[in-house]
Amino acid sequence: MPKTLAELILSRQSGRDVQAGDLVIVPISRVMVHDSVIDAVMAGLKDLGKATVWDTTKVGVFVDHAAPAPTPVVADSHRVLREWVRAQGIQTFYDAGEGVCHQIMVEEGYCEPGTVIVGSDSHSNSYGAVGSFGAGMGATDIAVALGLGRTWLRVPESIRVEFTGTLRRGVTMKDAIMRVVREIGTDGARYACVEFHGVGDLPQGDRITLAGMTTEMGAKAGIVVGTPEAPAWLRPDPDAAYARRVHVDLSTLEPQIAIPPRVDQVSDVSEAVGIPIDIVFLGSCTNGRLVDMQQAASVLRGRRISPRVRLEVVPSSRRQFEDAMADGTLGILSAAGAVIGSSGCGPCLGRTGGVLAGEEVCFSTANRNYKGRMGSPDASIYLGSPYVAAVAALTGVIDDPRPYLGSSDADFDALVTKRRADRGDRGAASARSGDRSRELAMAHPVANAPWIVGMDQED
Amino acid sequence: MPRAWVFGDDLDTDQMVPGRYAPFMVGQDKFQNYAFYDARPGFAKEVRPGDILVGGENFGCGSSREYAVAALKKLGIGGVVAKNFARIFFRNCINLGIPVVESADAVTLAKDGDLVTLDLTAAVLRTPQGDATLRPLAPFAQQILSAGGVVQYLAAHGDFPQVE
Hints:
The complex is a heterodimer of chains A (459) and B (164). Chain A has helices at 5-14, 38-47, 72-88, 101-107, 139-148, 173-184, 204-213, 284-287, 290-300, 318-326, 329-335, 386-395, 409-423, 428-431, 433-443, 451-458; strands at residues 23-27, 30-34, 59-62, 92-94, 116-119, 133-136, 150-154, 158-164, 193-197, 221-224, 244-249, 256-258, 266-268, 279-283, 310-314, 338-340, 361-364, 380-383. Helix content of chain A is 34%, strand content 17%. Chain A has two domains: 5-251, Aconitase, domain 3, CATH 3.30.499.10; 256-458, Aconitase, domain 3 (2-Layer Sandwich), CATH 3.30.499.10. Chain A has a five-stranded parallel sheet. A five-stranded parallel sheet of chain A has the order 16-15-14-17-18. Chain B is of the alpha/beta class and 164 residues long. The radius of gyration of chain B is 15 Å and the shape is globular. Helix content of chain B is 30%, strand content 15%.
């Protein structure tokens, strides 16, 4: 029986010849636990009657979701977590400031290709960047995994995404994956595994962007085919059965943006030019790496951001932070007016560092733009690439980054001056993305779009 | 009699309990008071034990936060009926012992505030407008749910239900 990557991995790990639809019980090569679920995980283990985790060498614990602690309640929870880690004898522990769990899991080599890894965060799909079957789960599932070293899974159907061509300047793999989300929708890959073909030789960071964003399509896992980390057996059969095939030609791709409050409400950036922005967030497991900061710095080098905008940069790990310090990237961003946050999830989930005020409009390089995600439920969040984020910080509006890249200083400055003048002195809240975002959303309908309800409530 | 709380498609777990009201932000004994805090103001005060959530497609998408389901559990939600579910939310409900069933027509039949009965044995959700058909749960999930959750199942049986 020809096999997809998911069928290959789950057959090998379960020791049975399984296909999509079968239930399997599989051993886990590593469990990832993060700070915001530790209380429920500990309670679950206790209720299971397990005094210790099944294997202390196969557990990674991370303090990243609300770190450093923003309140005494969170600080207490972190203290409990540290004591638990010490009492259990778990060696793989990354405290506040070390970075986002997913970035560290992949870049420090904790993800073994071809194995099953479960994590307490939904973006654990990221481990597919190196060929692991990474699945996010809730606290009780994680407690069970920690107690037993095994979990149950339904072998998923697979969606085959084929990339061809080469990206043009100013377009990134973030744009490519947003184009895929636009095609598949927030539930188009529910329970499925998304297989990425044609991009195995991309830098690891780009592959994390791809695999992690499969969560936003409802996927159980997202795996890149043919990565340098993967063993030879980890190749889907050419005649494997796919539930769906999607093709994206990278050479004709435009920068993409997601319109609040849906990740799959995506348009070309050219349709959103001029939408005012109050705050820009550059960071997260999706786009907080050195290359993302370098892309932003290529726009902001020697310039100051718009006086109407704040820019917050949060490197996704200490390694990325230090690399960006060493090559001068952070210096450029700081000189441009950026706030540099300590490595971690930052304001992506609205718990710490630069949360949004009511009716503020944010441009974020992260992965979710739900209502209330980054703070006030009245704020709106656009998603996109580091290039678009940097241009938004510079001009105060959403714009296509390509005309800025490679243009003369005079042309560049003229563009910035024009965009700033067009925006004028309006705060983004008073100009309100509402009208434009509604217009854009209407132009890009998704099935049964509940955003209409959301937008009505917002207005 | 339980009431129906009707929601649309793609209801994400950030709407169920916003991140800023996570248990470790506001305390283990308080987070359920913020259920649907922005999406349905007043929900946590008005909901009664046994009430049923009814939704459309991709119910419970987004963050893996089990405390969204734990909040529903603490408030005594009697079951969740939707066209289909996001995978992590579905697992979390089964694991915590909240009946979670698919129904193609419940979301169109049930009106918000209707008095309803979730009859798992007959596989219907009874509404004033008629019975919505429920899709039976897989035996594996049914066994865990019958035990009251995965921890209870494992405590009683020592291992997962058989899969082969």
